[in-house]
Design brief:
Layout: H1 2-31, H2 47-58, H3 67-78, H4 81-93, H5 100-108
């Protein structure tokens, strides 16, 4: 039983690593304007957006995502569209006091 649990743990780790690599690959394709999504996306990177990303990256203001971010993104993308919409609606309905913009301003001081 311990061997099965160990093997399952190793397989989960490998799947997470593969998902992270896929997310990283997709992001690289998006930056190059070559990612077409899963066929349902109508958004295509505009040349000026790609150029802006390049300028920001060269200035050190835009970097590669952390491995944890890639895993979280893969988890988010695995959710059903309805679940993602529900979460987005919930976040948009939040009323923060103070507003998030004020929190950001205060943290910059």
């Amino acid at each position: 039983m311990a061997a099965v649990a160990s093997e399952l743990k190793e397989l989960k780790k490998r799947v997470s690593t593969l998902e992270a690599n896929i997310a990283k690959f997709r992001q690289a394709l998006r930056r190059q304007g070559k990612w077409r999504g899963n066929g349902t996306s109508r958004i295509k990177a505009k040349p000026e957006h790609i150029a802006a990303d390049k300028v920001l990256a060269e200035a050190g203001l835009l970097g590669e995502p952390l491995p944890e971010d890639i895993v979280r993104a893969a988890q988010w993308l695995r959710l059903a569209a309805e679940e993602r919409q529900r979460v987005q609606d919930e976040m948009r309905a939040l009323k923060l006091d103070p507003p998030l913009s004020q929190i950001v301003i205060d943290n910059r001081r």
